[in-house]
Amino acid sequence: MTAKILVVEDEPAIQELIALNLKQAGYSILCADTVSQANKISNDILPDLVLLDWMLPDMSGVDFAKKLRRESRTKDIPIIMLTARTQEIDKITGLDAGADDYITKPFSPRELIARIKAVLRRRLPEISDEIIEIDGLKLDPATHRIYVWQGDDPAQPAVLALGPTEFRLLHFLMAHKERVHTRTQLLDRVWGDHVFIEDRTVDVHIRRLRKVLESVGKENLVQTVRGSGYRFSVENNEENME
Ligand code: CA
Question: Which of 33, 77, 122, 198 has the most CB atoms in a 10 Å sphere around its CB?
Answer without folding.
Answer: 77
